[in-house]
Design a protein that fits this description.
It is elongated and about 80 Å long. With 208 residues, it is an alpha+beta fold. 37% of the residues lie in helices and 13% in strands. It contains 7 helices and 7 strands, in the order ββββααααβααββα. The protein has a 3-stranded antiparallel beta sheet with strand order 5-7-6. It has helices spanning 60-71, 73-81, 96-105, 108-118, 135-145, 153-164, 186-196, and strands at residues 7-10, 18-21, 50-51, 57-58, 132-134, 169-173, 176-182.
């Protein structure tokens, strides 16, 4: 069984095995940049913090939260057991490093969409903002970035719309009906990603 399953099998010596509710929690450390595979902002099982060379959590606001959590952990559990709804032990602290893990975990169309924001020149695959493109032009950009991808243009189009909320429309090009998109401004594009991928993605574009 994996550690995240809802039940565990318990088998005492000489007694038939039976299942119990899995209430276990785990802590792990790593020197790698990418340590967990969490797909999106609904990944509520993880709190990820970064520690410096002196084993202090950074930044300070996250250190204060974690220290408080350990100090009051017994109180939180007691309130949960007594059904005090003001506290939930299932809530995670949404740290900056959890967002980083989500970005490391992105694949396929979602990664392509995020990379559009980060690309800085045409050689790196950038599409120009507030500009009209055919659906095929955008799909070919994707295939150039991920040549081993097995999804077709139709599946790509559905995924692209799902995460960007950009509506397509039909018009003729060179005498043939084609599907088109108009990419919005970069800021409007990012605002949609903050709804569909993570609420804090590209915070630097909104700092005062």
């Amino acid at each position: 069984k994996v550690i995240s399953e809802k039940t565990l099998s318990l088998e005492k010596k000489g007694v038939d095995a039976h299942k119990i509710i899995n209430t276990s929690h785990f802590m792990a450390s790593s020197n790698d940049d990418w340590i967990i595979n969490c797909k999106d902002q609904t990944s509520r099982r993880f709190t990820v913090v970064e520690m410096d060379n002196t084993f202090n959590i950074k930044p300070q606001i996250e250190k204060d939260y974690i220290c408080d959590l350990f100090k009051t952990g017994a109180v939180h559990i007691a309130k949960y057991l007594y059904n005090f709804k003001c506290v939930s032990v299932r809530e995670k602290f949404d740290t900056t490093n959890l967002l980083q893990q989500i970005l490391y975990s992105l694949t396929g169309v979602k990664k392509f969409i995020v990379d559009l924001v980060e690309a800085e020149d045409e050689a790196n695959g950038v599409l120009f903002w507030n500009t009209e493109y055919t659906a095929n032009e955008i799909f070919q950009k994707y295939m150039k970035s991920y040549p081993t991808s097995r999804i077709n243009a139709q599946v790509f189009g559905k995924e692209f719309h799902k995460y960007t909320n950009i509506e397509s429309y039909q018009k003729k090009k060179d005498g043939v009906n084609s599907k088109f998109y108009i990419l919005p401004t970069k800021i409007d594009f990012i605002k949609e990603l903050r709804k569909t991928i993570h609420k804090n993605i590209f915070d630097e574009y909104f700092e005062d």
